[in-house]
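During the second year of the project, the team shifted from modelling isolated chains to modelling whole assemblies. The rationale, set out in the original proposal, was that interfaces cannot be judged from single-chain predictions alone. As a representative example for this report, we include one of the complexes processed in the last quarter. Its constituent sequences, exactly as entered into the pipeline, are reproduced here:
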Amino acid sequence: MRASQLDVFAVLSLRNLHVKRGSRVILHDISLSLPAGKTLAVVGESGAGKSTLIAAILSLLKPSAGDVTWNAAPTNRARPALVMQEPRAAFNPVCSLRRSVMEPVVAQGLTLKEGRLERLCAGLELPLELLERRPEQVSIGQAQRAGILRALIPSPPLVLFDEPLSALDAVTQKHTARLISELQQEEGFAALIVTHDLGYAVAHSDQIAVLKDGRIEEIADAKTFATNPQSAYCKSLRYAAIALGALEGAA
Ligand SMILES: Nc1ncnc2c1ncn2[C@@H]1O[C@H](COP(=O)(O)OP(=O)(O)OP(=O)(O)O)[C@@H](O)[C@H]1O
Ligand SMILES: [Mg+2]
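Output from the structure prediction step:
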């Protein structure tokens, strides 16, 4: 099958993408396709280029070659959303969290279903009164969950999550991951999730792409990756995750 046929149902397609920062090429020849409603996890060590990939998808960085395309259903008017790696970075320091959370809804002229804010806050274990505070007046983990709220509230067709659970304790990670999955099932958004946690990637994604030094080392179905990765590098990632207990019950 040709790439163009594969891309017909894709919400997001990257073709032969090269991205530089300054004079250095950070991403080399990246091709990926994310179908509607599906989840792609991108894993890789620090500095591999994961956040650069997200920046290129959102046109915050211009590719030096290749292209990024995304298509949403005509009925979904919301733009792709981002959960930033640095929990407070999405928030205006002088405004209440509520104002920043609602900013994409207001800016895109969207109307929320009644009770949506309350429902998402409950799922994310964020008391409503907390939204009246400024970002510096909440914990990093609360700011991270408010960042997830901000991304999900407009019902976007595509959500890019950059290490969305990194500041949360293990129990809150589980609750939050479950909320994201439930909402995804109900609303059908596609998700690209950058994570260091292979267990999370295996349990919550359809496909896993491993990025190493700015290149895709391997892409596989999540369950296949958990049991039988192909490259020596991916085998070593799997063994490390097993040693940490991160793959228990995930595959
Ligand atoms: N603004 C910048 N200018 C120049 N180089 C940069 C810039 N930001 C990142 N880099 C470099 O680009 C490479 C990829 O960085 P990137 O932030 O995409 O990594 P990452 O995979 O997201 O890592 P982490 O897991 O630590 O967040 C790194 O070598 C980094 O030093
Ligand atoms: Mg990063």
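Residues 170-187 form the longest helix (18 residues). The chain has a mean pLDDT of 92.
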